[in-house]
Amino acid sequence: MNRMAILGLGLMGGSLGLALKNSKGFRGKVRGYARRPGTRKLAMKLNAVDEVFENPAKAVEDADMVILCVPILTIPELVKTCKGGWKRGCLVTDVGSTKAELAERIDPLLMGTGAVFVGSHPLAGSEQQGLAAARANLYEGAVVLVTPSDDKNGPAIESLKKFWENLGATVKVMTPDEHDRIVARTSHLPHIAAVLVSKTVGRDGDLRQIGTYCGPGFRDTTRIAEGSPEVWRDIVQSNRKCLAGELAEFKSELERVSSMVEKGDFDQLLRFLENGRSKRKQLVQGKRGDEQRGDV
């Protein structure tokens, strides 16, 4: 693949451009698209792209691969805008956090174009936003979930796996539905929980003064709550059914611990805390073990 097009030059898209430009295994050209003139100017200044366009259809012309790096619910409209610009055989992917609804909407839009969509979700990122926060090593060591709608596009799936692996990522292939069920539990629920803690702690009073008493525990627990509200609104909206189930589980656990505190059942509370501590250790150790084995 010699021509890449990145549509959306924020943290994810900008980091992708920098990674490609710094990759020893890639000698092609990187095109970019951004709505804002300031972003286009900065992308060239940072050498995140070779060319940058105001019109997304121009950016995708003759591209062998197109990576959509905009909020989830914006992606289908962007694909429509590029109608007529797709090169036959072009591999189209994204970096979004939900997949089932996205695949259902994009596949019909690409019908007859010869372009193929296979979703991607890099488990990488930051609470920071925008191109200024982009870095070339964002995807190194990350897990990327590749989510084909079916197994008919074997060559495209393999090409996409190699693309991410060449950037230092580990790839796991799964269906869009399986993806959405898993990340609702491991990513979307924790984000909402972090927002709830931030909102509860900061519910009233002199927040500057209260903030002086917020230590590392608060900062570690709530760091991700600084993520873009617009991006997270789209994530929740496009994965609402799976997330609703996880929130119900969370609510049940919260009610249990609330009851223990209210009743003064501290023996039960101790067991609750021990269980939570054990679960956290197992989850973290499991991830580390998979990284050492090269699994996900």
SSE blueprint and pairings:
Elements: E1 3-7, H1 11-22, E2 29-33, H2 37-45, E3 51-53, H3 56-60, E4 65-68, H4 75-81, E5 91-94, H5 100-110, E6 116-117, E7 119-122, E8 143-147, H6 154-166, E9 170-173, H7 176-201, H8 207-211, H9 216-222, H10 229-238, H11 240-263, H12 266-293
Parallel strand pairs: 1-2, 1-4, 2-3, 4-5, 5-6, 8-9
Antiparallel strand pairs: 7-8
Helix pairs in contact: 4-5, 7-11
Give structural notes:
With 296 residues, the protein is of the alpha/beta class. Among the domains are: 3-174, NAD(P)-binding Rossmann-like Domain (Rossmann fold, 3-Layer(aba) Sandwich), CATH 3.40.50.720; 264-296. 53% of the residues lie in helices and 12% in strands. A six-stranded parallel beta sheet has the order 3-2-1-4-5-6. A three-stranded mixed beta sheet has the order 7-8-9, with helices on one face. Helix 6 links the parallel strand 8 (143-147) and strand 9. Helix 4 (75-81) packs parallel to helix 5 and helix 7 (176-201) crosses helix 11. The longest helix is centred in the C-terminal third of the chain and has 28 residues, at 266-293. The relative contact order is 0.11.
- Low-confidence runs (pLDDT<50, min 5 residues)? 292-296
Q: Mean of the pLDDT scores?
A: 93
- Distance between the amino and carboxyl termini: 26 Å
Order of helices and strands: EHEHEHEHEHEEEHEHHHHHH
Q: What CATH first level of the domain at 3-174 would be assigned?
A: Alpha Beta
Q: Tell me roughly what share of residues is in helical segments.
A: 40-55%
Number of strands: 9
Oligomer: single chain
The largest sheet is: 6 strands, parallel
**Count of DSSP helices?**
12
Shape: globular
Order of strands side by side in the largest beta sheet?
3-2-1-4-5-6
- CATH fold label of the domain at 3-174: Rossmann fold
Name the CATH superfamily classification of the domain at 3-174.
NAD(P)-binding Rossmann-like Domain
- Helix/strand structural class: alpha/beta
- Return Rg in Å: 21 Å
**Which CATH architecture of the domain at 3-174 would you pick?**
3-Layer(aba) Sandwich
Q: DSSP strand (E) fraction?
A: 5-15%
